[in-house]
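Entry:
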Amino acid sequence: MGAGMPKALLPVAGRPLMCWSLDALAASPDVDRVVLVVPDGCAREVEMAVGGPSEGMVIVAGGATRAQSVAAGLAATSGADGVLVHDTARPLLTPGLVSRVLEGVEGVDGALAASPLTDTLKRAGDGLVVAATVDRMGLWRAETPQAFVATRLHEAIAAADREGRIGQATDCASLVEAIGGVVRLVPSGMANPKLTTPADMELIERLLAGPSQ
């Protein structure tokens, strides 16, 4: 984002970005504890942004990669049977989506919110000449939240670390898949965009404001 601050603290629709997701998690009857994984050295700043320490919330420092940050969060969930991983960069999270993803884990190792691809896909060749049109049938866009049997996510991260893949994963589901885990897609059924660039800000703020704005 080029904002000069951790994205989670970026003001979005009048509040720090992370607060939108925290509200949804707090409203979910399926969530017992929240672990906020933040950049090293930012814990105090984050604590102040969320109004100080609160019961059921732990703030821990993350690592150099996504998987290492998830591992740091997992270390603070000792005793949990299941874990839910969510990017604060997706602030339109709802308690309903949390419930559906957690329900999706039943009988498998994990589940993730996802949307079917609707655009035509092109594979680029040299000089950005189209090399092929990719069949989009059966292709889905991975989102968060993603939920897992805790022991399987622990195993997946440990295997990635051992095999030197820990810096390559772009989501947790791919790590669980890599150890043979079964992961279910859960249609998000809602706008669930990710704040990645400044161009995303206007759309996300409009969605957060609601249809009447």
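The chain has a mean pLDDT of 91.
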